[in-house]
TrEMBL record:
GO terms for cellular component: extracellular region. It comes from Irena cyanogastra. This is VWA1 protein. Keywords: Glycoprotein, Repeat, Secreted, Signal. It comes from the Eukaryota.
Length: 182
């Protein structure tokens, strides 16, 4: 009857029936990766609780969870469950260049994740070392890069800045079209 909801790559919520009250006892919670007993964590929980979020977990890992109601009134059997966290989603997993013009092109990327605070776009002509930076809010997954030179190849790097501070980057090449001859 102990089960998990809201499973992500780094957390899940444990839910169990209300067996105890604040006065009648407490719960002993033990959890950890099934493969590694040394990494098990233990916690004492107040008897009034009937759910708890476990966070800072490893992605794509099966956790063994045991909840023992410790009551001085009556005996409750230990409840166990196994929960597998989701694989870590990484953004950007793909970068797409579209709508090239002589002075601009459109850049989009996927997936958009809640764990990403913002995106940084670095772009500059190839070959060359002049690089410009564009900041994009983490809720957006596309932008237009403008004021470019015609008939030029650009290297575009999209970097996801995660709320945790981690960063992941992916690059793509883009070519602007030839300008009007006049």
């Amino acid at each position: 009857r102990l089960h998990a909801t809201d499973v992500t790559s780094s957390s899940f919520r444990l839910v169990w029936p209300q067996l105890l009250s604040q006065e009648s006892g407490y719960y002993s919670l033990e959890y950890g990766p099934g493969t590694d007993p040394a990494r098990r964590r233990r916690q004492q929980l107040p008897g009034a609780l009937s759910s708890l979020v476990l966070s800072q977990l490893a992605p794509n890992t099966t956790y063994e969870v045991a909840l023992t109601p410790e009551s001085n009134v009556r005996f409750f059997p230990r409840q166990t469950t196994r929960v597998t966290t989701l694989p870590e989603e990484i953004s950007p997993a793909q970068v797409l260049i579209s709508e090239p013009g002589p002075h601009s092109f459109h850049v989009s990327w996927a997936p958009v994740l809640d764990s990403v605070a913002s995106y940084q776009l670095l772009y500059g002509p190839l070959p060359g070392n002049s690089v410009r930076v564009l900041e994009v809010d983490g809720r957006h997954n596309s932008t237009v890069v403008e004021h470019l030179a015609p008939n030029t190849t650009y290297l575009v790097t999209v970097t996801a800045v995660y709320r945790s501070g981690k960063e992941k980057s992916l690059s793509a090449k883009a070519c602007t079209q030839e300008g009007e001859r006049g």
